[in-house]
Every structure is written in C-alpha cells, then in structure tokens.
Design brief:
The chain is built from five helices and no strands. By secondary structure, the protein is an all-alpha fold. Helix 1 runs antiparallel to helix 3.
C-alpha cells in the first residue's frame, strides 16, 4: 500500500512536480519521433508505436521512483498504461470525427489529452513527494 502522510514537504512536492513536467516534455516532445506520432494514430498497426511511446513515459517514471523509492517503481508501468490509453482514446475520437489541426475541435481534444496527462502527473508527483518526505 502507498502511504501518503498528512504533511508532505513543500520542497519535495515542488521538485516532484518539476520532475514530471520535464518528464512529460522529454517523452512527449523530445523522444517521440515522427514515426511514433503518425504510427500511433493509424487505424491499424498502431500498437507498436504507441507502446514504444507510452513505454518511454513509463520508463522515465520508473527511474524517478527508483531514485526516491524503489518499491514504487511499478508506477512506471501504471503510467505507461494510463498514458497509452489516453493517447489511444484521443486518436480514436479525432479520427472518427475526421479532425485535422486546422479545426478548433482538434485542439480541444489535444488540450483534453494534455490535461489528462498532467492530472496523472499531479497524482504521481504527490506519490513521489510523499515517498521522498517519508524517507
């Protein structure tokens, strides 16, 4: 079980929040290739590029937890699964509606996707900060 104390260090929550912002930037924009972007949105053959992309997210999350609290490194797998699910649902929704970047609704879906990722990171940052505060 993950124990969240009543008090979490402000320094830990700030550091964990920044770590997950950087993680998201790296995994979603620096390490994501154009082949992953195009591949994960295909109606068929999407699994491998999406799995690689989500796996990068999960791997970085696992490393963050390995540094602070190794028993919680499994949260990297949870992050990968959540990230992949969010991305896949966005892909299905935008494809079904035949949305392109030239349409406002496309950006609403993109914004919702990014918001869900950041909400996931808020939860992960709290868990990382709680583990750091306890140690």
């Amino acid at each position: 079980m993950i124990d969240i104390p009543d008090q979490i260090s402000t320094a830990w929550i700030a550091a964990a929040s920044v770590a997950f912002l950087v993680k998201h930037f790296l995994a979603d924009f620096v390490f994501q290739t154009s082949r992953m972007v195009a591949g994960k949105d295909r109606p068929v053959g999407w699994f491998r590029p999406l799995a690689i992309h989500a796996g990068i997210h999960g791997a970085i999350t696992a490393v963050l937890f390995l540094v602070v609290s190794p028993p919680l490194a499994w949260l990297g797998l949870a992050d990968a699964l959540v990230h992949g699910t969010i991305d896949r649902l966005k892909s299905i929704a935008t494809r079904r509606q035949k949305l392109t970047p030239g349409q406002t609704t496309f950006w609403w879906f993109f914004g919702a996707d990014q918001t869900l990722h950041h909400l996931t990171h808020v939860l992960l940052a709290i868990l990382l900060a709680a583990a750091g505060s306890a140690g």
